[in-house]
Amino acid sequence: GINAEYMGKTNKFTASHQGIVDSYGIARYKEVNPACFSVITFPFLFGVMYGDIGHGLMITILALLFIWKEKQMLAAPLNEIIALVFGGRYILVIMGIYAVYMGFLYNDLFSLMISFGEPYWIYPKDYDDARANCDPGYVVWYGTNASNIRACKKINGSTYLFGIDSAWAETENKLEFMNGLKMKMAVILGVIQMSLGLVLQCFNHVHFKDTKHIICGFIPEVVFLLCTFGYMCVMIIIKWCVNWPQRMLNNLSPPSLLETMTNFFLTPGSVKDDKYLFASASTQNSIQTILLLVAFAMVPILLIPIPVIEYRHHKHSSYGQLKHVDEPNEEDPGHKGEKSGHGEEEAFDMSEVVIKQVIHTIEFVLGCVSNTASYLRLWALSLAHAELSEVFWNFAMMKTLYMDTGFGFMAFVGWGAWGGATVGVLGVMEALSAFLHALRLHWVEFQNKFYYGDGAQFVPFDIEKLIPSPHDTTAEE
Description:
This protein is mainly alpha-helical.
């Protein structure tokens, strides 16, 4: 058989995306190419970590300038750093657009919030004001003590027009709220992208007609992931949708999802009667126990059938040996073997097959935990980016404005300090950090679900390279 080389056609827009994938490894022949999906997912994850309207516009404008002056810059000599940034101009413009989009979702413009409409929340002055303007559930919840009334939902208030409500600006618990929101969002995005990776793995198996890896690999892996961390995503969405002030009037407090998931694995069926999330405590306990049993049942399905199938295939094959390693192998569709120097066939080693499958099973099960935790970098970097932006604004800009005596000198100094910190730290260092973390999420957490990346790049035949040039003075007879 022939191990065909891979050739991916690109244009100016997709070349940088394909280059990122090729840095990880060249695709096998007819294998799913991750670049087709990372065109969208890579800039989006960057935007999740770098979400700010102002900072995103900075990157977008810079990339658009590079595209506008493309012909002149291609003809001119560039230093190494500028040439590197210029080469990624088309991916930069998409990264900047997604950063702006996520900035609108976070309602964050250089750490300032913008009002897009009537707030969903109001701050009543006293109990009478609360009774007149607040949802009745909040009035009963707070009681008649006016000092307890801090914020409440407006009567007949509608959901905020877009993104985070501007009423959260300058609140004491804004950081706590954004912390919980971004952490949960990171987990959901991570599970979605890992599930996409498993689906692409199925596409590979279907294309290469690898039935055993579909039934004994893809299906149990998807079921295990969805029964554990997919269930956690469902709980996150349910918790967002529940009217907790109304439920707290019935002495039902919101449960900690971290505690719930820990008990899900360690002590199933331990949901308390006053801290259930949906239906009832007994119903939630039953569902969680069933999901855990189903997830555990997937482990032996991942572990046992494939080595047994390969052993039976070996036992019934001609000469009692596997096919030549350089021939197409239906059991491992993209397998790239190397022919030995004497054309010998490798003998079947059952222990090697079993060890390989055990390692794969352990790696997948533990990887579900570690990969999901790895997506929390979306939360960490996004929160750090927002806090750094707020610190620079408050300490470099606002404090100097308060110190100004009316001549404008301190305001000028503060503006310069804020602008330098914004460009140098947030515009360059934070952007590079978010880029590298998005790169890691794609290479490790996403592509390892389906992408081998051990193929060979197609190199067209060029006879001129085989014929020595008559002007080549270095050639020796």
